Amino acid sequence: MTSRNGLLITALLLCHLIAALPVVTSQLPPSASGTSSGGEEVTIEARQQEKVGDLYRLRGDVVIHFRGYILSADEITYNAATGEATGSGHMVFDGGPNDEHLEADHATYNVKTDSGKFYDVNGTTGARFRGKHVVLTSSNPFYFTGDEVDKVGPAHFVVLHGRVTTCELPHPKWTFQAEKVVVDVGDEAKLYHSTFRMFGIPIFYFPYVQHPVERLGRQSGFLIPSIGQSSRKGTTLGESFYWAINRSADATFGAEYFSSRGWAQHMDFRARPAQNSFFNVRYSGVLDRGFGNPKVDQGGEEVRATGQETLGHNMRAVVDIDYLSRYVYRLAFSETFTQAVDSEARSNAFLSKEWNGYFFNLLASRYQNFQSIQRGDVITILRAPSFDATTVERQVGHSRVFWSYDAAAQGVSRRQPEFVTGNLDGRFDVAPRVAMPLLLRGWSVRPEFSVRNTYYTERQTTPLNGPGVPISQGINRHDFEGSLELRPPALSRIFDRPLLGHKLKHSIEPRVTYRFVGGIDNFPNILRFDWRDVASDTNEIEYAVVNRLFAKSVQPEQESCAAPDEEDYSAFPTQAAPSLERSLANTGGAGCKPTPAGARQVVTWELAQKYFLDDTFGGALINGRRNVFTTTAEFSGIAFLTDPRRFSPIVSRLRVNTGHQVDVDWELDYDTKKGHIQASTALVNWKLGDFFVAGSHAYLQVPGEIFVSTPFAGPNVFNQFRWLVGYGNPNKRGVNAAVNLGFDVNSRFLQYSAFQTSYNWDCCGLSFEYRRFALGSVRNENQFRFALSLANVGTFGTLRRQERLF
Description:
The protein is mostly beta strands and about 800 residues long. The chain contains five helices and 49 strands. The strands form four sheets. The chain has a 26-stranded antiparallel β-barrel. Strands 1, 2, 3, 4, 5, 6, 7, 8, 11, 12, 13, 14 and 15 form a 13-stranded antiparallel β-sheet that branches. The chain starts with a helix and ends in a 9-residue tail after the last strand.
């Protein structure tokens, strides 16, 4: 019995040894070419092995490990002397710093020279395979197939008669099918004589294309062409060239051809020479053949330049320049409604210095307001040069008295039809002020006193029925200003019963302010340039009350500070596992203590009104005309003074913010004297999952503006709606759609509308848009635009990302 048991045990051990994968380690001799000074270790695993001299015949789950690479196949013949391996039956090549992965029907590969030929190949770079899951290890994963792939060196492939894509194989949504593809792993792929295919359908032919294989630095080259259709412009075709000037600057130059209008040009220059400085210039223009019968030229150009430079010694230089040659150009060719109806062009450049709370600014500015589409019908206000100096409030010793000042020395001018000042008039303004804030048993009292003196080198004659006439005669304006602000203690209550899982607190904060300005007896003779010039006498009381509602969640906090397990991310085929350092940084590190969530202000409602003891504002008010003074502009922002009055409109400001779902802003001015709403502006945003709604309503009722160039009076009532309704977001897979509308209630006219829809796959997205502009006689246009976005490649079409609705 004992001998029989021993025989069985011996037989079982022999069977296990035969079934096990034998492992052989071979020390390769130096290569014949002498490129290696020593041997290289190669590990071989196979179910069956035969060795004749330096030749290994390997069968059954063959795996060869060498220098971080893995070569596997059903059968491989390997020459240890030359390093040549010839395999067949699902041969796979894996490894390298860029995670190269090739699957071939059969191949020949030299482990010493890193070269070989693969046949009937599917390959990837920047993706690591873990069973059925794929973890991306590159920002630009790259997939390719080919009848033959020659690996001619480390990280260098030549694909013959192949396809490349960023979609997952074996059924990619889009491909570039090329006769020859030269792939530099970690750099780029060069495609020769390629055809772009979408779902297998040939779309475009390209003699030469470059495709990134890794996130590279910027490279110069032609961008993907654009194409579109418009009822006004006709068929549009465009192309651009991108120039990577250096590591801190680049530029894009391009042109578009409008079959019905002419040529359009654009340029975009960007520079970031330092971390805290930048300079951008954007140019656009159209050489218009004209529209209508007879032809009307609507062409023009616009230049926008922005920049910032942080200098030493707390100095900063900023430039923001907007030059518009003609307003009709913006109306006719702007791609967004908001920009098309903007009749203003502002330019500012300043150098600012801060020293211990003192601020010194050297400024040049230019403001233009285009009154109509007629040439020359524009108001231009220039301030250059302008030197301003201010300071924060400063305490006098250890007293309760604080002082500050505001001073300016400026050169100003104003030009408009039938009204032109000097080329450069002088304006000198200084206003020191003193305040003494007090706190008495919860009552806040703040008296403040100031004197202001402003000297102008030019004045205007006293206007009668129209604007005055500028004359070269100096004028001095001075006044005394005083105010007293009183804030009683706030009333508050905390409600014990929670509402929707939140505890609520309501507070009421009243305030009363008395303000007096006296001494301005020459208001009609002052030229108007900006806010400094509309100061007038006033004797008034402002009273207001602010309601605030706070909410705090009563749910217990859920603290989770543990770093996520890196292996868990292998279940997501489109995400790379984050590093442990990044995970700890996002969660606060080991043993972190999240800050408890505090109360959130969800509702703010302010009601305010002014009572004017001096209803003529020191005689500055002109009966029957719209008057703009500092005291009314700062209070409401809407001109409401057309005749003497005691009470201002009641101003209501409501803000509701419940978190990420609902956001409401509503500003309302109700005129108690005339018994109607003077102005109302409402903004609403609501989001629920992938659904979102945004709306706005603007209502304004003011005396009609008399345009300068013509005796025509503008409308005195504006009533317009804007709505945006949609589903999805730019990165959501599947269907996304949105609709945008702009409607004028008075004219019962749809000024603007747009409908966009898109469908996103794993590696590409397709978007369509119909857009309509109805801007009177200048523009009545229907646009059809589309965009095809390819992951890690770019976007083809005329629908730009910044113009999308979602």
